[in-house]
Amino acid sequence: MLRYLRPADVEKYLIFFNALSEQTIRCRFGYLLASLTESAAKQRTNGNTDGEKALAIFDPDQARIIAIGRCYLDFQTGDSEIALVVSETMRGFGLGRILLNQLVQIARDEKSETISAFIATRNAPVIQLLQSAGFVFQAAIDGDDLRLVLKILPSISTERAMHPSHPTMILNHAP
Hints:
Blueprint (H helix, E strand, L loop, with lengths): L1 E3 L5 H10 L2 H8 L8 H8 L6 E7 L6 E10 L4 E8 L8 H15 L4 E7 L3 H9 L3 E6 L3 E7 L24
Parallel strand pairs: 4-5
Antiparallel strand pairs: 1-2, 2-3, 3-4, 5-7, 6-7
């Protein structure tokens, strides 16, 4: 099930984060976070504001988080930045694409003109995912990270970011 993160998800968020490998944490955050405090987890699960949207894919029982995505919106520049991470045990099932499609749609709905993603150079699967959705390489950042960008034009259909084998998912907005 795909839905926005809520404050009640703090414990599930901590369990998800603590199950990530050091390599995944470095690829997602750009550095190793030894641990995540409950306070930091509360901030990250309460991030559905005008400027930030945080999504999670849960297992069917909603007992655990299996993937997380974020869209940071900058209303002054018209740009958005996205990030996502999928549990190591759940990779290869299209969850990253589902999150990416939803994050791109959020940015479109918010009238973003550009979506950026900063990706570790060693994170080939995410780089390939973004490129398959139309993101293009724009810059290398300090040798370890890449900036990939998707320009959003009003005349381009949302289908560009959608993969034909994965239907668009509707977010569950229920509390």
